[in-house]
Amino acid sequence: MKQRIASVIFVLMTVFCHAQEVDKIDSLKKVISSLPQDTARVDKINDLSTLYLGTNPDTALIYANQAKELADKINYQDGIAWALKRVGQVHNIKGDYVNSLQAWKEALAIFEKTNNKKGTSNLLNNIGVIFYNRSLEDSAQDYYLRSLKVAEEINDTLRIGTALANVGGVYTNKPATFVKALEYLHRALNLYIAISDSASIGISHSSIGYIYLEKAIQLDTAASDSLVKAADIDSSLSHLLAAQLYIKASDDLAYTLNNIAKVYREMKQYDLAIQYNRQAYDEAKKVDARLVMAQSLLGIAQIDTSRGDYKSALPVYKDAEVLLRQIGLDESYDLVVAYEGLAQSYAHMKDFANAFVYQSLLINLKNDIYNYEVDKKLSTKLFAFDIGKKQGEVDLQKAIVGRQKLIRNGFIGGFAVVLLFAGVFFTQRNRISKEKKRSDELLLNILPAETAEELKATGTAKAKSFDMVSVLFTDFKNFTQASEKLSPEELVAEINHCYSEFDKIITQHGIEKIKTIGDAYMCAGGLPATNTTNPVDVVQAGLDMVAFIEKNKQERIAKGQPFFELRCGVHTGPVVAGIVGIKKFAYDIWGDTVNTASRMESSGEIGRVNISGSTYDLVKDKFHCIHRGKVKAKNKGEIDMYFVEGRNS
Question: Fewer CB atoms inside 10 A, N or C side of the chain?
């Protein structure tokens, strides 16, 4: 079972609740716009991030980063910590537990330093959830109990209830402790009812319903009393249906809907089960909760399998497998279910080759998950690591002693020999150092510094996802006509002159050059080092490029020379970045954001910076822009576009 963090919407009230959220967001934005750059503004931006968490995590992340940036600027420590909490929540929703844990640990350190016990209790609990999600129950329980202790010190009923609920959650993994789990969860539920906390009441009902469901499944496995099983099924369904009335967050709602589907599957009411699985998938997709999406698909596929419809089940199992691998769950029970289903489906369809492949994968996976020897080997490796570390210290000490002896014997044997070796050593070292510096400079000319260092250290560089990147494209309008009037040497020289100036402009604004393709120039802000200023930085760079090309045009006209004119487009959104190629490395970016930025350029006009509605929302306080309305872009439909006129006075 997973205790979740976040809040959004009950499926039957989506339209009404969404309208309420929109009203709250609009109202809060107006309040923020009237506030000075102080702690109150930070708090309100953090509140705005929270409102977006359930419906648009990417936007929530943008506002959380804005809050953190302002809090850093005014040294508002608690504001930084609360912003980091929201950052962690977004990563947690997306299944990126490593980045989530990093953000929450940073926030916890700040809260402990400022003696903010409310924040400390909150973050201890959240970190416990991460460890629980990674099946590290002992570590999770430690954090939950620490959270409970702090919450009791300040008599915070909400967080006492949360800690109790999560302590109960740890006891759900073994049938022998189900009763203890229910005890803690009912205690938490009573506290939530006492303070009328609807979201927490819903989560508690969902958790209790899950335990009754697991009890029923275990009873079925043990061939126990069917009346007891039926009673547990009824209790499970009752609590899960009650949870629907309170839960708002899309990922939490999806989790609950999946469990309702599981209950109906146990009752062999397959049509109802599929209906709830599909609702769960739709809710999870709203917030890109890929683990819950995969679990929804597995539920649908299992029902198809139960009905003997293996042809329909097969692609659904495949889709679930892809999602699980995307979030790094290569060793999970969910993947076991996917492999079992795939092996069974292929076998019934007489595709024995693929059935054998997935059966082999299943056996290997089960060994990795359940074999005690794996834990033993891991412990042995850790022990060997400690021994190796100690041995390394001993070897280092021996090396130091040996070097001292060598130096002493060198003096005894002849100072001249030592000087000779020293001279050779330093000469070679200086030569190697110069060559290394030269190769490093060449590498930095084609790759970002951070990526280059990773490549040198490991021989590879992993692709990375970035939530907010501003991509800029430029294109010379009359390139063909000008090239016909210039010699090849003159053409290359003029392009080099323009691109060199573009390189200087983006360097001034902290922007990364991606590539040039003929007369097109592409760059991006907000990577490889993330920041929240990149929309403003990139738009300003675009204005500087347009100004340079116009000035260059006038100079060339005065000399009677052919000239270039420039179109420029900018769009902001998520991208994936990494190295491509094995012979000539190239740092590149991918995603719909790149395609949309290209359309901003091609849909623009000469001498103007054309930006998307997404970028406009992030820069409108800094620049005066003219709304062009919805403009049709190739393969993108109609998009809100704006011309940037210049900086606001």
Answer: C
One-letter amino acid at 607 equals G
> Which segment of 135-139, 220-224, 263-267, 529-533 scores lowest on mean pLDDT?
220-224
User: Would you call 468 helix, strand, or coil by DSSP?
Assistant: strand
Structure tokens at 46: 């953090």
The Cα 5–Cα 255 span in angstroms is: 12
Q: Is the pLDDT of residue 66 over 50?
A: yes
Structural domains of the chain sorted by starting position, each given as residue range(s) with its CATH number in brackets: 1-114 (1.25.40.10), 116-248 (1.25.40.10), 463-647 (3.30.70.1230)
Query: Is 340:362 a contact under the CB 8 Å cutoff?
Result: yes
Reply yes or no on whether the pLDDT at 273 is more than 70: yes
Burial of 67 (0-12, 13-18, 19+ CB in 10 A): buried
22 closest CA partner among 58, 45, 56, 46: 56
Handedness of CA 592, 255, 104, 60 (dihedral sign): positive
Kindly report the pTM of this predicted structure: 0.45
Contact in structure between 294 and 333 (CB atoms under 8 Å): no
Residue 220 confidence (pLDDT) above 70: no
pLDDT tens digit sequence for 586-636: 778 888 889 899 899 988 999 999 999 999 999 999 999 999 988 887 777
In whole angstroms, what is the distance from residue 405 CA to residue 414 CA?
Answer: 14
Distance CA 391, CA 454 (A): 28
Tokens 């510096």 map to which residue? 437
Within a 13 Å sphere around the CA of 168, how many CA atoms are in the beta-carbon half? 28
Which are the contacts of 165, defined by CB distance < 8 A and separation ≥ 6? Answer: 3, 184, 185, 188, 189, 200, 203, 204, 207
Using CA atoms, how far apart are residues 227 and 216, in angstroms rounded to an integer?
10
Is pLDDT larger for residue 120 or for residue 404? 120
Give me the percent of the chain exceeding a pLDDT of 90.
Answer: 33
Nearest to 354 by CA among 339, 375, 335, 333: 339
Is the Cβ–Cβ distance between 616 and 642 less than 8 Å? yes
Contact in structure between 3 and 129 (CB atoms under 8 Å): yes
Contact 239, 208 (CB under 8 A): yes
3-state helix, strand, coil in the chain (%, to 5): 70, 10, 20
- Distances in Å between the Cα of 186 and the Cα atoms of 252, 284, 518, 602 are 19, 27, 67, 60
Would you state the structure tokens that stand for residue 345, as one six-digit string? Answer: 């489906």
Maximal CA-CA distance, the chain: 97
Task: Tell me the C-alpha distance between 164 and 335, whole Å.
Answer: 30
Distance CA 81, CA 109 (A): 8
Q: What is the mean pLDDT of residues 516-536?
A: 88
Contacts of 591 (CB under 8 A, 6+ apart): 573, 574, 575, 576
CA distance 160 to 195: 12
